[in-house]
Amino acid sequence: MASADSQSRFGQSVKGLLSDKVGSCSGDVIALTRQVLKGSRSQELLGQAARNMVLQEDAILHSEDSLRKMSIITTHLQYQQEAIQKNVEHSKNLQDQLSHLLK
Amino acid sequence: MAAVGDEAAAMDSISREPAAQPAALHPAAGGAAPAERPDPAAESPAAAPKKTGTNSDGGVETAEEAVEPAESDINELCSEMFDKMALFLQGELTATCEDYRLLENMNKLTSLKYMEMKDISVNISCNLQDLNNKYASLQPYLDQINKIEEQVSSLEQAAYKLDAYSKKLEARFKKLEKR
Q: Are residues A34 and B92, on separate chains, in Cβ contact within 8 Å?
């Protein structure tokens, strides 16, 4: 194999050999980089994480809507409680009148 | 074509002296250094592109390495090559960095959303606690309302009894009136 390579490179100039070597080294560096990135599986994992987060977004928005509705309901309950407080103060007089009637 | 013939001759001379390689290496190194130094001198392409020679010293033939003069822009080409290689590698790694940045931004936005939801939840919790306390303070009034309701029921029963008694009285009065 080495002899075949040396025979195929026999007719080429030093410049050509050097350029071939530089080209092959560059290709090896590129392939190594790609292999390292591919082996780390970072692209797949990060893509999967982004997809999962997008799937959760709907649930998060729904939860936020529910919380806002709860806040509005709580405000309405406060208004009702204030109205009850106002009206309940009349019950004392009413009870006195009834106890007087039932005597 | 002539250059190819000269190169073949140089390669032949090199291949014929394998034992003289250590000795050839030193003159080759000495020959390469002068070949690298005169870069301005290599500008003249008319000059001999190769330096080959045989020296016979004590019956031992040596040969120099066949070299070509370096081009004037070879340094620029080399630096350009390395720059582009670095740019390519940077681009390859930037893709992963951008993925991380995307996830980081998404996480930041989600954390902001959750902080808003937390504020709303805290607000709701405080309001509901106040409401529970106020409804607890209303309890005596609610008991009063229950008593009022019982008293009203008993009043209603008394009214029914009174109504029935008054009807009996009316019937007896009419009976006595007929007599």
A: yes
The string of DSSP codes covering A13-25 is -HHHHHHHHHHHH
A87 CB near a chain B CB, below 8 Å?
no
Q: pLDDT (tens digit, 9 = 90+) per residue, B49-82?
A: 444 445 555 678 888 776 666 666 888 888 999 9
Please check whether residue A10 touches B, CB under 8 A.
yes
Q: Considering only residues B123 and B147, tell me which one the structure prediction assigns the higher pLDDT.
A: B123
Beta bridge partners of B57: B60
- Cβ burial of B63 (10 Å; 0-12, 13-18, 19+) is buried
Task: Give CA–CA dist B120/B159, Å, rounded.
Answer: 54
DSSP for A1-67 reads: -HHHHHHHTTTS-HHHHHHHHHHHHHHHHHHHHHHHHHHHTHHHHHHHHHHHHHHHHHHHHHHHHHH
Cross-chain Cβ contact B88/A30 below 8 Å: yes
pLDDT of res. B26: 42
Beta-strand relationship, B54-57 and B60-63: antiparallel
CA distances from B160 to B63, B165, B166 (A): 141, 9, 10
Residue B68 is predicted with a pLDDT of 62
Residue with tokens 């390395």: B82
CA geometry: angle A12, A13, A19, nearest 5 deg: 95
Tell me the β-bridge partners of B54.
B63
